[in-house]
Write a structure and sequence with these properties.
The chain is α+β, with helices and mostly antiparallel strands. Among the domains are: about 40-100 and about 260-305; about 105-190, no CATH class. It has 8 helices and 10 strands.
C-alpha cells in the first residue's frame, strides 16, 4: 500500500510538472506569436512608408505649385506642416521651406526673435549669433566679439567648425554654446523644427510658422493669429495685401515677403506606431540630368504624431493611379519664384 501511495504521489507530481511546463511553453509560444505579429505589422508599416516616400517624390515631380500649396486650388496639399494620411497608417507633413527660418542667412535681429520665443535669455543672444557666424565663416582667423577659437571646440569635445553653411538643422548642436541651451531643444517644437538650411529668400506668409511670421517687420504677437485665420480661408497674394491686413506701411515688407512656395519642401513621414519619423528636404531640380529632385538631407526625429490614423487627418487629395499630365499641359513653377 505504501508503494502504491508513493507511486500515486509521484505520478501527481509528474503530472503537475507536465502541466506547469505545458503552461510555460504555451505562454512562450503565445508571446512569440504576438511578437511575430508586432514585427509583421512593423515591417508592413515600413513598407507602406517606403511606398509613401515614392508617392511623395512622384507628386512633387508632377504637380505644380500655387499660392494654395502643391496643386491647384481645387485639389491641393497645404505646405504648412499639416498632416495627411498616406499608405497604411503613415502620415506625411509637407512644409514649404520659405515658411521656415533660413538659418544660413540669419541676422542678429531676426535670430533674436526666435531665441526669445524659445526662452533663451537675451544676454546669450549675441554669443549664439557670433558663434554661429564663426562656425560658418570660411576665414579661419577671423573671430567675432563673442565668438570662440577652434581650440575651444576641441576642449569641449566638439567637431571643429566647418567654415561652410550648415547642411542640416540638427548641425546647430555642433555650434559652440548652442547645445547647452536646453530651451532650444525641449518642448514639442525644438529649434530644429523652426529652421531650414535650404537657400531661400524672403518669407511666405501662407506657409510660415508663427515664430517666422514674428521675424517680419511690423508684425506683433497679436497679429499672428489674424494672419493664420485669414490664410486658412484664402491665400495672401502679396506684401501689399499683408500690409493692409496688418495696418502697416507696405514698404516695411518689400523684399521680405514672397507669397509663393520655394522649390524646396521639407517632408516629415512616420506612423503613430513607430517611435521615430524620418525627415528630409526635397529640392526640385526639373532640368537636372539625374532626376527631377534632390534629397538635401535625411535624418530621424522623435515621433510627435498626436492624432491617430483616422478620419480627423485628411488623405492626400490626388488620385495617384491617374495618368500624369503631359509635358505640354503639366503645371510649372513660376519663373523667378523658385529661390
Amino acid at each position: 500500500m505504501k508503494s502504491r501511495g508513493f507511486i500515486l504521489v509521484a505520478t501527481l507530481w509528474i503530472l503537475a510538472g507536465i502541466t506547469i511546463a505545458a503552461t510555460y511553453f504555451a505562454q512562450r509560444i503565445a508571446a512569440s506569436i504576438e511578437l511575430a505579429k508586432q514585427y509583421d505589422a512593423h515591417i508592413q508599416t515600413q513598407i507602406a512608408c517606403s511606398d509613401s516616400k515614392a508617392e511623395i517624390a512622384y507628386l512633387l515631380a508632377t504637380q505644380g505649385f500655387s499660392m494654395y500649396g502643391l496643386g491647384d486650388p481645387a485639389t491641393h496639399i497645404k505646405l504648412n506642416n499639416q498632416p495627411y494620411r498616406m499608405e497604411g497608417d503613415c502620415i506625411a507633413r509637407f512644409q514649404d521651406t520659405r515658411g521656415l527660418y533660413a538659418i544660413n542667412g540669419a541676422s542678429r535681429d531676426t535670430l533674436g526673435v526666435l531665441l526669445n520665443r524659445k526662452g533663451v535669455p537675451e544676454a546669450e543672444h549675441d554669443r549664439l549669433f557670433d558663434t554661429l557666424m564663426d562656425y560658418m565663416d570660411p576665414t579661419p582667423n577671423m573671430h567675432r566679439l563673442n565668438g570662440v577659437q577652434k581650440e575651444d571646440y576641441k576642449t569641449h569635445g566638439l567637431p571643429a567648425p566647418t567654415g561652410q553653411l550648415l547642411v542640416t538643422p540638427d548641425q546647430l548642436r555642433q555650434v559652440y554654446g548652442w547645445k547647452e541651451q536646453d530651451s532650444l531643444w525641449s518642448g514639442s517644437e525644438p529649434i530644429t523644427d523652426w529652421v531650414t538650411t535650404a537657400r531661400v529668400i524672403a518669407v511666405n506668409p501662407n506657409t510660415a510658422i508663427p515664430a517666422v511670421l514674428m521675424t517680419l517687420p511690423g508684425i506683433t504677437a497679436e497679429a499672428v493669429p489674424r494672419i493664420l485665420q485669414y490664410r486658412d480661408i484664402e491665400p495672401i497674394l502679396n506684401e501689399g495685401q499683408l500690409a493692409n491686413l496688418l495696418g502697416i506701411d507696405v514698404q516695411q515688407l518689400y523684399f521680405k515677403v514672397i507669397a509663393f512656395p520655394a522649390d524646396t519642401i521639407r517632408v516629415s513621414l512616420g506612423a503613430d506606431s513607430q517611435q521615430t519619423s524620418i525627415r528630409y528636404n526635397v529640392a526640385l531640380t526639373p532640368i537636372a540630368p539625374e532626376a527631377p529632385w534632390r534629397i538635401d538631407y535625411y535624418y530621424r526625429i522623435p515621433q510627435r504624431i498626436i492624432q491617430k490614423n483616422n478620419d480627423a487627418i485628411p488623405s492626400i487629395p490626388f488620385d495617384l493611379t491617374a495618368t500624369p499630365a503631359s509635358a505640354a499641359t503639366a503645371p510649372f513653377i513660376l519663373q523667378g519664384a523658385s529661390q
